[in-house]
Amino acid sequence: MPVNFFDDTIKREGLRVRVVFMGTSEFAVPLLEQLVLNGYPIVAVYTQPDRAAGRGRALVTSPVKRVAVERGLTVAQPASLKTSQAVKKLALFQPDVIVVAAFGQILPVSVLTIPAHGGLNIHPSLLPTFRGASPIASAILYGGEFTGVSVMLLDKGMDTGPVLARAQIPISSWDTIGSLSAKLSLVGAQLLLEILPRWVQGELTPQRQDESQATYTRMLGKKDGEIDWLLSAIGIWRRVRALNPWPGCYTRWQGKQLKITESVPFSTERNVNIGRVAALDKGEAVFGVGTGVGVLGVLKVQLEGKRVMTAAEFLRGQKEFIGAVLPS
């Protein structure tokens, strides 16, 4: 049921529950912000260490750290929580519960036994499907109509703990990992606010996951974005969405990386060889590429070193592109 973020009961309970929050990516930000806005004392925020990124290798802080600093919260960034020193430091915060969302580390049992109410993980899938590192991208890649969020009690496994609550949402045909992640983070924040006071009051019974239905995902990297034109148009279209904005789906043109940032599948199109670029007259899809099954209509691209542009804009500057054969 919908959560009233300003419900007095939730606020009253929030003042009694000391929370250590653990998160790193943008997905975790709305959850942290809603806990703060609803009166939960955040005694510490744990996030991944700052990392060098970009050509200049400048240190970049996580989205969660930036919000925590703005809020004046205590921030901890241990490289690992498996050392006795890290466990002792965490215990000094005396948390009643640990809330985890897209943190990037598996918590050892020595950490999970510190809070009286254990650790709650907000996982962006309908567990036990899509356990692991890339549940949102996998939901798009596998062509599901629905996905969701699960709040589970952490144990020593990877997303194997008993589930306290789930919430389901549809996947739009235009959803990318970016847009779907934003939706799921808001749903996760609502679900957490609904179940956290009930959990600490002993009103919820965790439900074991059905191991026979479990599926696992792996960490995706830049190499996963390279397009194999032998795949179907629908499969490549899903991949374009599932890897947008990072790492992006790409092919190569004249020695440069060419990202396809928006596309549409035409599974019934024929007579276009695999990898060959053909002119189309289908709205914004002014050109397409032959695939193993059908043609991938291209709507937007980004040539290496350039901005994102429409397919029509790109063609105006690349007169030899129609008829080219892209590598698989």
Structural class: alpha/beta
Low-confidence segments, ≥5 residues, pLDDT <50?
1-14
Main-sheet strand order equals 5-2-1-6-7-9-10
What composes the largest sheet? 7 strands, mixed
CATH architecture of the largest domain: 3-Layer(aba) Sandwich
By DSSP, the count of extended strands is 17
Q: State the CATH class of the largest domain.
A: Alpha Beta
Q: For the terminal residues, how far apart are their CA atoms?
A: 48 Å
Q: Describe it for me?
A:
- This protein has 328 residues and is an alpha/beta fold.
- It has two domains: 8-217, Rossmann fold, CATH 3.40.50; 222-317, Formyl transferase, C-terminal domain (Methionyl-tRNA Fmet Formyltransferase, Chain A, domain 2), CATH 3.10.25.10.
- 26% of the residues lie in helices and 27% in strands.
- The protein has nine helices and 17 strands.
- It has helices spanning 8-14, 29-37, 63-70, 84-92, 109-112, 135-141, 177-200, 233-242, 311-317; strands spanning 19-23, 42-46, 51-53, 58-60, 75-76, 97-101, 119-123, 131-132, 146-153, 163-170, 216-217, 249-253, 256-266, 277-282, 285-290, 295-303, 309-310.
- Helix 5 links the parallel strand 6 and strand 7.
- Helix 2 packs parallel to helix 7 and helix 6 packs antiparallel against helix 8.
